[in-house]
Amino acid sequence: MSAPGTLFGVGLGPGDPELMTLKAHRLISAAKVVAYPAPDDGPSFARSIAASIIPPDAREIPIVVPMRLDRYPAKAVYDRAAAKIGEVLSAGQDVVTLCEGDPFFYGSFMYLFERLSGQYPCEIVPGVTSLTACAARLQRPLTARNDVLTVIPGPLADDDIRARIDAAGAVAIMKVGRHLKRLQALLADMGLLQHAGLVERATLPQEVVLPLASVTAETAPYFSMILIYKGDEAWMLPPQSSS
Amino acid sequence: MSAPGTLFGVGLGPGDPELMTLKAHRLISAAKVVAYPAPDDGPSFARSIAASIIPPDAREIPIVVPMRLDRYPAKAVYDRAAAKIGEVLSAGQDVVTLCEGDPFFYGSFMYLFERLSGQYPCEIVPGVTSLTACAARLQRPLTARNDVLTVIPGPLADDDIRARIDAAGAVAIMKVGRHLKRLQALLADMGLLQHAGLVERATLPQEVVLPLASVTAETAPYFSMILIYKGDEAWMLPPQSSS
């Protein structure tokens, strides 16, 4: 009986494949088995970030999670995926799990981790989060000196979001998605609309970077974020440059 | 007169050179001019992360900031550094500025950025932050589902820290340093000492990962962080693995 394999949770960064770490690149390029989350109605975003370096002969284990408004828990899906991955690990083979952003920052990898980390060695490879990728694209520092940063999921109720924004120095609202109009109205009511920027699909070719006040769409993608610069002068779209 | 060069703020990640992004690696490897913060009493941490890939013939501009308890503002230092870097940019040459972690996440790059971004094209390359690197080393998910995350600088007063921890779902306390004993006492008083972990110098060879309750030192390095898992069972040190 061989030693068990290691479960790797590998952060891929926000989307631009060049924002992957060297370590992620090394582990994926040499992987014999890769796992990744995938929706039931299209390609896997995580897989797409790493697609060019997944070895052609690697075994792939997609974890197909139905994409519904109420996304979690998808208990049975993760139970089955953990059982399948556990078999591979028990046979002594490592499994490299591809994770958008960072595995432990609002990621679905935790559902595998909580099922498998007690039985098998695990290693987490951190990645660039959408949080700092969005600040980079908005060209405004996220936090400095002794700022308190609060990261708020957009689905929370207005009263809760309002109180948390009041108390914070720097604010990021994640998972804007279908909450866009409501959040715009709330920030307008708080006098903060001119101090907020929206980033959709940061660092990807389809990226959108806009002052929140100028956004007219009804909804934003799930992968979108509002950053609020409370202390700053009113928002102006930065000049963009790219390399 | 040539077009001006671009000011790059390049995140290097938390310390392990392999946690640099592919983009950071490409930009630094090809740099003609690199700038970086350096203390007046030792080597530059940022430069050390990238040391093996800085071209031998690159011009280096260290930004020497006196390391005092009250570190900022070091206005004159950044005024001079911005003037020197501005000359290089005006001459049409790019400047790659090396930043520990992420340039816009509690970083000193903002002092250059605020002086130069109005006059020259800038590009920010986000990096892996200590926030998720520490969560990775502690082997516990930082945030999930609709958790609100609050990042608190350790130098804040006890009353302020206490109120923010009470209100948050997940908590990170940055810049623990000389505030270690005070923070330990505060968390003990709040009944959270058994739910907290300390990471010093995440991902570096000198890294320390400990349950906060077992830490006996009087102080921690400036680059150290406490993560608090309020909802979890009491803390147990995870089994470590490495690749």
From TrEMBL, chains A, B:
<dbReference type="InterPro" id="IPR035996">
    <property type="entry name" value="4pyrrol_Methylase_sf"/>
</dbReference>
<feature type="domain" description="Tetrapyrrole methylase">
    <location>
        <begin position="6"/>
        <end position="210"/>
    </location>
</feature>
<dbReference type="InterPro" id="IPR006364">
    <property type="entry name" value="CobI/CbiL/CobIJ_dom"/>
</dbReference>
<keyword id="KW-0808">Transferase</keyword>
<comment type="pathway">
    <text>Cofactor biosynthesis; adenosylcobalamin biosynthesis.</text>
</comment>
<keyword id="KW-0489">Methyltransferase</keyword>
<dbReference type="InterPro" id="IPR014777">
    <property type="entry name" value="4pyrrole_Mease_sub1"/>
</dbReference>
<dbReference type="InterPro" id="IPR000878">
    <property type="entry name" value="4pyrrol_Mease"/>
</dbReference>
<dbReference type="GO" id="GO:0009236">
    <property type="term" value="P:cobalamin biosynthetic process"/>
</dbReference>
<protein>
    <submittedName>
        <fullName>Precorrin-2 C(20)-methyltransferase</fullName>
        <ecNumber>2.1.1.130</ecNumber>
    </submittedName>
</protein>
<dbReference type="InterPro" id="IPR012382">
    <property type="entry name" value="CobI/CbiL"/>
</dbReference>
<comment type="similarity">
    <text>Belongs to the precorrin methyltransferase family.</text>
</comment>
<keyword id="KW-0169">Cobalamin biosynthesis</keyword>
<dbReference type="Pfam" id="PF00590">
    <property type="entry name" value="TP_methylase"/>
</dbReference>
<dbReference type="InterPro" id="IPR014776">
    <property type="entry name" value="4pyrrole_Mease_sub2"/>
</dbReference>
<dbReference type="GO" id="GO:0032259">
    <property type="term" value="P:methylation"/>
</dbReference>
<dbReference type="InterPro" id="IPR003043">
    <property type="entry name" value="Uropor_MeTrfase_CS"/>
</dbReference>
<dbReference type="GO" id="GO:0030788">
    <property type="term" value="F:precorrin-2 C20-methyltransferase activity"/>
</dbReference>
<keyword id="KW-0949">S-adenosyl-L-methionine</keyword>
